[in-house]
């Protein structure tokens, strides 16, 4: 059952063969509410990896999940090293050493496997009284259908996945969604948490709420601050002044070299003028300090 680690970690581009679930359709109406969701951007496989290092080897726990459709077996992976066809959530454990991975465990956590092993998804808002458009609003999604029989088990045990989708308006809908977080896998129930902007609902007939800007002090990623506009104008005016003045001196006076600089004498004297100004300011400050002793010399 050995496979290369590179193949074990390559779980991309897997689309299901069945139709997407209703709750993943654009404009899905949330039961018992006046809100709708668009989870269609989450209709693709996501990989979750948790590694436990114990030199010279490592245990890698990997979850391949698509809440909307069934996942497919990655190319180069044998049937015995992956979940059954129809899996929505596939859990695998690898023993990794020297860039090679042995598949130790494969669990069909959730999916439509035919017969009585149905997905039976249950999607709902955790609190229908809350504002489902705001950050922190949560939805519960339960996926069933999985079974697992260990070496010491007498019969298969039902498995399921419990996801909490949480609205996060700080994310951008223009960015690719990040995978959920594996919270735990205990007592045959896999718990996951998914903070995503796609879990932010919209009221009926309205567009989804806009994402919060990354910097609260700016209204968007584009545009320029007032200070930036000021310095831009200054640089443009200086450019026009020097280029236009040099062109004028060249055409009218046939000037060359430093003589091209408009008002050349002023610019050559400017460093000395600044030096004299600084010296004058320092002398003024020092004279005030010397004169504040509280008595008058006679």
UniProtKB/TrEMBL annotation:
GO cellular component, one term: phagophore assembly site membrane
Membrane topology listed for this record: Single-pass type I membrane protein
Keyword Thylakoid: no
Endpoints of the signal sequence: 1-19
InterPro entries membership: Autophagy-rel_prot_27, Man6P_isomerase_rcpt-bd_dom_sf
One of the Pfam families matching this protein, by short name: ATG27
Compartments (UniProt record): Preautophagosomal structure membrane
BP GO annotations: protein transport
Name under which the protein is recorded: Autophagy-related protein 27
Keywords: Membrane, Protein transport, Signal, Transmembrane, Transmembrane helix, Transport
Taxonomy, superkingdom: Eukaryota
Listed transmembrane segments: 227-248
Biological source species: Lichtheimia ornata
